[in-house]
């Protein structure tokens, strides 16, 4: 804990783990990297359902100075709050997918009541000078509920996913209620300046608010700080993972797969196979179908890659109870089968997709074995995979990052990666071709630029700058980047 600042209390739907277990999700990874260093209380859902739901007993586990306290949800709460409102309404909407968003008043009601119940369960654990930090789209109302419970200390909020433009957000029946509730927080953090501007535009256009200097916005009698705080990773820790024995084993295993000379007569005489990797939760926001099409186009338009480019997509299942995710899985498996059926030879399978989880060390080894990492979401708050890939490379023979223009990480990494429009199949194929053939010197130069960004914009930096803004509260006064 920094001197003079209160205890940090983080509240999020997912809690932990703090160790190296495989866990897909940027929030858990970013927050555990930050909390491990500072200590504090982490409160949220246990991941379990029980009959008593949010009225159940609290469960607490202490690890590395972090006390992780969780509660269950009932089956009805899980359905209405998590699957329903959070992931059928808010997730698609905030990712600009109005076509997939579903709205119903039952899940709206349950979402509000779970927010209220989480607030009333955490309230007795709070101390007066705690700095409370609420995370993500599951808990828009939690701050205002804590105020109703009488909490007078500082409360901050961070949105891990994009905030869509007001033209889209206003389609949500409760859009005004949500943004008004957000105004109960003292500081509202976003991943990028685009997200922050969308939020401020909603306040102005829909709620008659006004933009003040110093990244503040006023609506009625409430003034809040709204600022971008791009999340990062523990880059040094991740670089150490990448040279661990477990990473080494995975790297070696993949090298064995790629240390094969291609039998394709179109390929360069002495070409070895080159590995392309993608690592994403199986989510429609990640642009996986479009990415597969891009890879297929690479094999069509640049036939020298047949037999020599090997694509490994790690895609752990996520939210598999929801129709949109079931459908996506079906389409991806069909497309992978189609590409393999069309191009495979007796000694080469072009595309491999696997849904299993890996430890963070094992994943670091996979990144290190790759010549190219494809990170091509259609929309993404930040995307920590892009930063992990950079941190895992070595200076001698670094891989190339191909990154979507719609990922939050673009703002920090664009000077070193190849930017693509994930909707443009030719663009993805062309970028892959360029990345696979990039000379060593250019790879090293580009990687140095990205390395600098990833090692300066860490999880610790993210956490400290948010906490600093929260501790300063109304005194916060910082010019906008473009002001
Ligand atoms: P999101 O938060 O939308 O899932 P991010 O890219 O920001 O996207 O974060 C994903 C996190 O999940 C990364 O830290 C990544 O390493 C981790 N992850 C992804 N796939 C796996 C997997 N198969 N096993 C373990 N961790 C994974
Ligand atoms: O980082 C975005 C995020 O939505 C987190 O809020 C979430 O924990 C993670 O992705 C994984 O999703 P879920 O918690 O629904 O499994």
TrEMBL record:
One of its GO terms (molecular function) is alpha,alpha-trehalose-phosphate synthase (UDP-forming) activity. InterPro entries: Glyco_trans_20. GO terms for biological process: trehalose biosynthetic process. Pfam families: Glyco_transf_20. It comes from the Bacteria. Belongs to the glycosyltransferase 20 family. This is Trehalose 6-phosphate synthase. It comes from Fulvimarina manganoxydans.
